[in-house]
Structures are given as structure tokens and as C-alpha cells.
């Protein structure tokens, strides 16, 4: 039964993993745009709060750095290169997690029997 589950998982990941990673990358870039616009608008706001006056210069520095890389917040549109780059990053992160889990399970050492350093 375990071999059938492993084969099914492999087939599903092969056929649906790449499209799903592209959809996740589009979603994450859309969320990035919303956060980028929000941070940009907040950095332009003038408030009388002393905490805000302390944070505002740092926020302006962050926004200017992001604007240097991506352009103005209102005009930002993710390109195909950015979508592919984020999709590959998602695939690498998920694959690395699977590799680490497989290595930990194949070592034969459970968490209960591991000794903690003194």
C-alpha cells in the first residue's frame, strides 16, 4: 500500500506540482504588490504620533530601496521572469523540506531517542 501511495504522490506532484507552483507564485506576487502599495502609502503619510515620527524614516528607506528595484508602487506589474523566479523558489523550498524529512526519517533515529547536548 505504501508503494502505491508513493507512486500516486509522485504522479500528482509531477503533473500538478508545476502549475500549482505557478499559481502560488502569482498569488504571492499579487500579495506583494498589495503590501508594497500599502507600505508606500504609509511612508508618505504625516502623523503627529512620536512613534510614527521615529518609524517613518526607516519606512521611507525601505520604500526607496524597493522602488529602485521594482519602480513605483502604483505602476508595479509582475513580469514573467518574476513569476518564474518565485515559482522556482517555492518549488525549491518545498523540495528541500521533503528532502530534510526523508533524511530524518531514513536515519532511524526518533526524536525521543536523540540525546540533547549537555
The 3D shape can be described as elongated
Number of domains: 1
**Quaternary structure state of the chains depicted:** single chain
In what range is the share of β-strand residues? under 5%
Strand-and-helix sequence, N→C? HHH
Low-confidence stretches: none
Global mean pLDDT: 76
Helix/strand/pairing category: mainly alpha
The number of helical runs is: 3
- CA-based gyration radius: 22 Å
- N-C termini distance: 42 Å
The largest sheet is:
none
Helix content: over 70%
**How many beta strands in the DSSP annotation?**
0
Written description of the protein model:
With 118 residues, this protein is mostly helical. The chain has one domain. It contains 3 helices and no strands. Helix 1 (2-44) crosses helix 3. The longest helix is centred in the first third of the chain and has 43 residues, at 2-44. The chain is elongated, with a radius of gyration of 22 Å. The mean pLDDT is 76. Keywords: Membrane, Transmembrane, Transmembrane helix. The chain crosses the membrane at residues 6-30. It comes from Coccomyxa viridis. This is G1884 protein.
Amino acid at each position: 500500500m505504501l508503494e502505491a501511495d508513493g507512486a500516486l504522490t509522485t504522479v500528482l506532484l509531477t503533473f500538478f506540482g508545476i502549475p500549482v507552483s505557478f499559481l502560488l507564485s502569482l498569488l504571492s506576487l499579487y500579495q506583494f504588490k498589495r503590501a508594497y502599495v500599502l507600505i508606500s502609502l504609509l511612508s508618505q503619510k504625516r502623523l503627529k504620533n512620536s512613534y510614527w515620527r521615529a518609524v517613518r524614516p526607516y519606512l521611507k528607506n525601505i520604500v526607496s530601496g524597493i522602488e529602485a528595484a521594482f519602480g513605483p508602487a502604483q505602476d508595479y506589474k509582475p513580469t514573467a521572469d518574476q513569476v518564474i523566479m518565485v515559482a522556482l523558489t517555492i518549488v525549491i523550498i518545498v523540495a528541500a523540506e521533503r528532502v530534510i524529512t526523508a533524511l530524518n526519517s531514513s536515519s532511524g533515529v526518533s526524536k525521543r531517542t536523540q540525546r540533547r547536548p549537555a
